[in-house]
Structures are given as structure tokens and as C-alpha cells.
Amino acid sequence: VNELYVDDPDKDSGGKIEVNLNISLPNLHCELVGLDIQDEMGRHEVGHIDNSMKIPLNNGDGCRFEGHFSINKVPGNFHVSTHSATAQPQNPDMTHVIHKLSFGDKLQVHNVHGAFNALEGADKLSSNPLASHDYILKIVPTVYEDMSGKQRYSYQYTVANKEYVAYSHTGRIIPAIWFRYDLSPITVKYTERRQPLYRFITSICAIIGGTFTVAGILDSCIFTASEAWKKIQLGKMQ
């Protein structure tokens, strides 16, 4: 059962959303890669390092960034950039592959298929190395309630993206990978329900009825073929 309503389903979260980001930049050294977080509540954090890890790629020429952090439930952005580097590189290469971007807890439910990791596999390796990338996200609160009444909270999101070359006030190109987000006021709720007995009985009757119908058709075909064969045999005897 699916339904939509207007509310914040996870009021115990303290106004926070957990974010999981896993992204590879195969042509940018790890010491240059950083995560910056900004929002409309005044948060402005450059070089966020808590619960994050950088894994060298391509003999140290590239980097895989994995981070787990929280954002406030207000419009804002987080971006992967070289802004926190001690010295800015001359030609930072922001080509990348996104392995994971998800919000909230992962729903381990086989019958719920939503856009919980919509950017998985996004490949920008053939883009202009100096281009900035904007991913515009609309985050949709999602609730799953099982048959016992236990609720789990997660977030789906839609995404649009564009890329462009941006110049600083000094005329230098300092590209970044931006994730600009806003929250939808609409919550999606999935409710698990046991199948009613009458629906189960109806399904069984439909299966039985279908079986008899097919059996009747086969019997008719066999009878018709048998009669035709008899007529052929009689024709040969005359």
C-alpha cells in the first residue's frame, strides 16, 4: 500500500539527515580532495573530515572519497572540491564516477523499489576536466511500515544535472562537484499489508479455472485431430 502525505515523518532525527557519499576522481590527488558543506541555516564548513576516508587510485594519481555526514533539513549544498587544499592546483580535473549517494537509512525491503540511490553509476569521465558539475536534488522523505507497525525512515531523491566552466574573480578556473538539495514537503509511505483471505481464494479459483480451460482446449484439439485421422484412414480403405 502506498500513500502520500505532508509531514516530517522522522521528528526524532533532530532536524538532521544522514548522507552517504562514495565518489571516485581518477585524476585528482587525494591531498587535493575535500568536502565542503553549506546551508541556509548559516552552516559553512570547508574540508569536512569526520567519518570520511580517501583511498588513492591509479598509483596515487586519483582518489576515491567515501564520507558519512549529516545535513540540516533546510536547503543547502555539499560539494567535492579543492577549496580546502593548502595550494590550489593549476588544472584540477573533476572528472568522476559516483558509486553511491544516499540519504537516511537503507531500506532492506525487497518489494520497495524507489530512487534511493539515483546517482549510482553516474559517469562523467568523458566530461571536460575543468568543468564544474551541478547535481540538483529534490529529497523526498520515505517511510516503510511493516506488518508489526514498526516504521523505518529513509529518503528518495530526484536529480537533474548540468556542467559548465566557472571562473573565479581572479580569472582562474576552480571546478567543483556540487550537490544542491532541497526537501520535498510530500512524504511517501509504504505500508506492508497481509493479503486478504478473499483475494487468496479468488487467485486460487482463477488458477483452477484457467487450468480447466486449458485442459478443455487441449482435449478438444486432441479429439478433433483424432477424428480427422480416422477420416483419413477410412478414405484410404475405400
From TrEMBL:
Membrane topology: Multi-pass membrane protein
Pfam family, one: ERGIC_N
Protein name (Swiss-Prot/TrEMBL): Endoplasmic reticulum-Golgi intermediate compartment protein
Role, per record: Plays a role in transport between endoplasmic reticulum and Golgi.
Membership in a protein family: Belongs to the ERGIC family.
Subcellular location: Endoplasmic reticulum membrane; Endoplasmic reticulum-Golgi intermediate compartment membrane; Golgi apparatus membrane
Gene Ontology cellular-component annotations: COPII-coated ER to Golgi transport vesicle; endoplasmic reticulum membrane; endoplasmic reticulum-Golgi intermediate compartment membrane; Golgi membrane
Domain Endoplasmic reticulum vesicle transporter C-terminal, residue spans: 55-219
Highest taxon above the source species: Eukaryota
Domain Endoplasmic reticulum vesicle transporter N-terminal: 4-45
Keyword field contains Transmembrane: yes
